[in-house]
Amino acid sequence: MSSLTCHRKSNGATYVYRRRSCWDKEKKRSNPRQVCVGKLHDNGEIICNRRFRTLEARAASEKSETTAESLLIGQSLVLARAAKDTGLERVLRSIFESRVVDELPSLSWAAAAGCGQMDPACVWLEQNNCPARKEPLASPDISRILASVSQSRNEEFLGEWIQHGRKGLRRQYRYDLTSNLSAASSSQNMSNPLAQWDRNSDKEDLRRINMLLLACAASRIPTYYELRPCSMSDAKTL
Q1: Three-state SS at 3
Q2: Which of 102, 100, 120 is nearest to 111 (CA)?
Q3: Least trusted range by pLDDT, from 20-34, 60-74, 135-149, 182-196
Q4: What is the mean pLDDT of residues 139-164?
Q5: Phi, psi of 138 (to 5 degrees)
Q6: How far is the C-alpha of 131 from the C-alpha of 121, rounded, in Å?
């Protein structure tokens, strides 16, 4: 806490000092300090000296300093427009809780931007403008989000997404079954009932999972997907 005091010198001028109490840790007591502010004019106005004006200007400059921050927005602008134009954003908000409604699209944006795994997604979310950037996500947060998407909730979303895609003219669909996706081509999880031993194109014996995908022929937008054992043929899954 500070206060102003006035002292009249022998030359007739009255000097104004700002007195501030500071705690002395070594002496364990308050140690008052004072700084000369300037002179007191006859009309009662304080005329600040150059030293005090410099200190005040420096303090105001340090107080007004802000940390600059840069964000990448190119990929986010494209993905946000795609989510809105396709209706994906609306369907997601109608199915999932508000807690993860911004986090799920952000993770899908990171995957679409080239993050094949979820570990690099944390860096992408931090560097790019996305809905989940307000509260940065760490690896435990991503695990929590993915665990919250149950199979029943996933099927509910796919059902709503199919109904959304059926609006308008009659559509034609394309179907594909593949196990060549990097995320599903092999699995070391021995407890996964869908993973079966199979030989890939490089003649390697791996536990593999097939993914079937149904997409609209005109828009090329995926409509439905399902995971299947690698032993099932295309015709059987269809």
Answers
A1: strand
A2: 120
A3: 182-196
A4: 86
A5: -105, 175
A6: 14
User: Identity (one letter) of the amino acid at 180?
Assistant: N
Report residue 10 CA to chain centroid gap: 66
- Residues 216 and 81: their CA atoms lie apart, in Å, by 19
* 8 A C-beta contact, residue 26 and residue 46: no
Residues 175 and 127: beta-carbon distance below 8 Å: no
pLDDT tens-place string over residues 162-210: 888 776 556 788 888 877 543 444 445 566 677 776 666 666 667 777 8
CA 55 to each of CA 5, 35, 45, 48, 60: distance values in angstroms, whole numbers, following the listed order: 19, 11, 19, 11, 9
Q: Which residue has the tokens 């996706």?
A: 181
How far are the Cα atoms of 7, 127, 129 from residue 104, in angstroms, in the given order? 68, 17, 14
CA 180 – CA 176 distance, rounded (Å) = 12
Q: What is the pTM of this model?
A: 0.56
∠ Cα 188 191 192 (to 5°): 75
How far apart are the C-alpha atoms of 84 and 104, rounded to whole Å?
A: 15
81: tokens are: 């427009």
Task: Please name which of 222, 228, 91, 82 lies closest in space to residue 156, comparing C-alpha atoms.
Answer: 91
